[in-house]
TrEMBL record:
Record key words, sorted: Membrane, Transmembrane, Transmembrane helix
Organism: Marivirga arenosa
Phylogenetic classification of the source organism: Bacteria, Pseudomonadati, Bacteroidota, Cytophagia, Cytophagales
InterPro entries (UniProt xref): DUF6168 (IPR046166)
Domain of life: Bacteria
Protein name: DUF6168 family protein
Transmembrane stretches, start-end: 41-60, 67-86, 98-118
Length: 129
């Protein structure tokens, strides 16, 4: 399990870095300046990916039938923490423009998909065993 987690974490990190650089490149070419730190959002999502993936991996050993429910609950907790940590950005007086809104959504969905793929593969291997 640890080897699978490390490989998947490394792949997720590489994908995140590529998308972050592509996003920064696009924003700089469009002369867009974000009112928040895009890197901080990626760091938050990456840390939460590691916590969720390792927790799902540990839980799959003890309670393999409950992994899906735990993953679903962890996603809601992640969204709640995200809103708490980035509330000044999300609920600021000034309305976010389109590049700022899409720059929040891109890392969220990228990491959400990676977490879902990892959890799904883990649940499928538990079903076969």
């Amino acid at each position: 399990m640890l080897k699978r987690l490390m490989i998947f974490t490394l792949l997720t990190l590489v994908l995140a870095v590529v998308i972050l650089f592509a996003q920064n490149w696009y924003l700089s070419n469009q002369n867009e300046v974000l009112s928040y730190s895009l890197e901080a959002m990626y760091i938050f999502h990456f840390i939460s990916f590691i916590v969720i993936a390792s927790s799902v991996g540990l839980l799959s050993k003890k309670l393999p039938d409950q992994v899906g429910y735990f993953y679903l609950a962890s996603v809601f907790i992640k969204i709640g923490l995200f809103v708490l940590i980035f509330k000044n950005t999300l609920f600021s007086e000034e309305e976010l423009n389109f590049p700022e809104r899409i720059s929040i959504i891109i890392p969220f969905f990228m990491f959400l998909v990676m977490e879902a793929i990892y959890s799904g593969r883990l649940m499928n291997t538990n079903d076969k065993a």
